[in-house]
Structures are given as structure tokens and as C-alpha cells.
Write a structure and sequence with these properties.
Helix content is 21%, strand content 30%. The chain is an alpha+beta fold and 253 residues long. Strands 1, 2, 3, 4, 5, 6, 7, 8, 9 and 10 form a 10-stranded mixed β-sheet that branches. The longest helix has 13 residues. The two termini are 23 Å apart.
Length: 253
């Protein structure tokens, strides 16, 4: 057996998320179809670092799979890109150690959320940013972000897992920065819950609008109820940008 590791980028606009679903267009479903053709009839079972939601993008997604015979890696990358690019692109393909698993070996993920605060939306970037023309105060947003760092129970910032599971995660970074007419929020953690990043962004936006107090974040966390946090930000402003493996978090894949 050989283990193949793929570094992927994709535009999530036309997909109902990563995970394969019958009768629904997903990244995993489309990539699996193409890999089955390239590998000569052997459909791989894909493991992925981040199961992105519908409409969420990626530039640093990592997937892996096992095959019975070692494939020509360069040919595999060229063939997949010829059929899927530019919507889905294999940025890098290589063989990995036998124990490698894209999901279970990951030690960190980093997401970037982009908010366009220009008076009018830009049609050239509208698929990848949340247009929010109302003013957002960065100081209170940063203060709220600091209150959320560390090992916390993020039940208030996610859709309840089914079946029930732990909602404790370690949020290593939650930064808020201005870049021209964009506000960029970066979130790094050992793992994320369903809709967690979008919930964090929506809550920070509510703070920036003056609708929530940054000092209320400990109360929001302790409530463990989704209703007390801010609204969920739309998916199209979010991208998975990096996955880390090994003891040092968030080295480039």
C-alpha cells in the first residue's frame, strides 16, 4: 500500500461542502470521481484535514488516501488538474509515510475570514468576501477576541454535534486586522467545530457594530447556548488557508 498526500485549493461556491453526499455536488464527491478515473478504477477513500461547509473555500486543504500500487505522482497531479482546474486544483501531490492521515495527524488548522467594508461591493471579489458596509470598530473586536483564546468550551459557537461529542477546543489565535478596505480575521486552533469560525466572526462583527459588549465573552462561553452568541457569518468569506502537522503548530503543509 502507498499513501498519497494532496495539497488542495478550491472555490467552494459551487459545492455543498467537502463531504460526499448522494445526489449533491461536493468537493469530495467530484475529486473522488476524478481520482477513480486517473487511478484506473480504484476509488480512493479520502481523509481530509478540514470538512469545509457549503460555500467555504480552501487554499491549504490537505487530503490523503491509500492505494494498492504506487502511482505516478506527477501524472496524477497533471491529470486531476486537467479535469478540475481552476475550480479545484492540486497544488502539490506527494507520497507520505504509511502512518500519515490528513485528518488524524493534523495538529492545527488556520482559517481566514475576509470582510469587505467598502461602501459598495466589488464584483471581482464578491464571491470571497462578506460585504459589510456598516462601520466596524476594530478595538472592541480585538478585545473580544482576546477573551476567547485558550482551551475553552465553544458550545455557544457551533451547531450542536450529532452524536453528542466534546465541544472543547484550543483556540491559539484569533486576530483582527485592517488591510485597505478589508477586515481580515484569522483563527487558528487544534480543531474547529461545525460553523465555529463563522460563529466567532459573526460575534466579533456584532461587537464591532456595538450590539455586543466585548467583556460579555466569558458569559457567552459559559452559557453554552448558541442563541447567546452573534449571528453566523455567511460562508463565502471563509477559507481554510493552512494545516499543520507535527509538534510545531501551523507550519506550512
Amino acid at each position: 500500500m502507498a499513501v498519497v498526500r494532496l495539497l488542495l485549493a478550491y472555490d467552494g461556491t459551487g459545492f455543498r461542502g467537502w463531504a460526499a453526499q448522494p445526489g449533491v455536488r461536493t468537493v469530495e464527491g467530484l475529486l473522488g470521481d476524478v481520482l477513480e478515473r486517473v487511478l484506473g478504477g480504484e476509488r480512493p477513500r479520502l481523509s481530509v484535514a478540514g470538512r469545509t461547509d457549503a460555500g467555504v473555500h480552501a487554499i491549504g486543504q490537505v487530503a490523503s488516501f491509500r492505494v494498492a500500487e504506487t502511482p505516478d505522482i506527477d501524472r496524477l497531479q497533471r491529470a486531476v488538474n486537467a479535469m478540475l482546474a481552476p475550480e479545484v486544483v492540486v497544488r502539490e501531490a506527494r507520497l507520505a509515510a504509511d502512518a500519515f492521515n490528513a485528518r488524524h495527524r493534523a495538529t492545527g488548522r488556520e482559517y481566514l475570514y475576509r470582510i469587505d467594508v467598502a461602501p459598495v461591493p466589488d464584483p471581482m471579489t464578491a464571491r470571497y468576501v462578506w460585504h459589510h458596509p456598516d462601520p466596524l470598530a476594530l478595538g472592541p473586536m480585538r478585545a473580544a477576541a482576546r477573551e476567547l483564546l485558550g482551551e475553552r468550551d465553544f458550545a455557544s459557537f457551533c451547531r450542536a454535534p450529532s452524536p453528542p461529542a466534546s465541544t472543547v477546543r484550543t483556540l491559539r489565535r484569533l486576530s483582527v486586522a485592517r488591510a485597505g478596505e478589508e477586515i481580515r480575521i484569522r483563527a487558528q486552533a487544534n480543531g474547529f467545530l461545525h460553523q465555529m469560525v463563522r460563529s466567532l466572526v459573526g460575534t466579533l462583527a456584532a461587537v464591532g457594530e456595538g450590539r455586543m459588549d466585548p467583556e460579555a465573552m466569558p458569559e457567552v462561553l459559559s452559557a453554552r447556548r448558541r442563541q447567546v452568541a452573534g449571528r453566523v457569518a455567511p460562508p463565502h468569506g471563509l477559507a481554510l488557508v493552512r494545516v499543520s502537522y507535527g509538534p510545531r503548530p501551523l507550519t506550512r503543509p
